[in-house]
Specification:
mainly alpha, two-stranded parallel sheet, 5 helices, globular
């Protein structure tokens, strides 16, 4: 699990979960463990999270069941309604985290293979 700011800097990273743990499980565990010093959003501010995370105070996810990804909007019509407009803006604001991981994967190519490496070693 990783948290990154709009300057493409990681502010929190937690690695090492074995197997296929759901994002929400890892997130809730990070919140429960004070020793990890998870950086909660300041009062009145929000972290943007994807649909795999729970909707709790301080963490803002997209509306489920509505278009979300930017290519979906590029192929079709402009966002319609409050929920689609919100999802379009939410998706646009999440671009830095996606770009950050892309930069890291291009810089350190072993990161691309990490999922395959972990999967193969777990299920030998």
């Amino acid at each position: 699990m990783a948290v990154c700011d709009f300057n493409m800097c990681f502010t929190f990273v937690w690695v090492g979960w074995e197997g296929a743990a759901h994002d929400a499980r890892i997130f809730m565990e990070a919140l429960r463990r004070p020793i990890l010093k998870f950086p909660h959003p300041p009062t009145g501010k929000y972290y943007l999270v994807d649909a795999g995370y729970p909707q709790i105070k301080g963490y803002l996810g997209p509306y489920r069941g509505e278009r979300y990804h930017l290519p979906d909007f590029r192929r079709g019509s402009q966002p319609r309604g409050k929920k689609e407009i919100f999802n379009h803006r939410h998706s646009s604001l999440r671009c830095p985290i996606e770009r950050t991981f892309g930069v890291w994967k291009n810089r350190w190519r072993m990161i691309r293979q990490m999922h395959n490496f972990l999967w193969k070693n777990k299920y030998k």
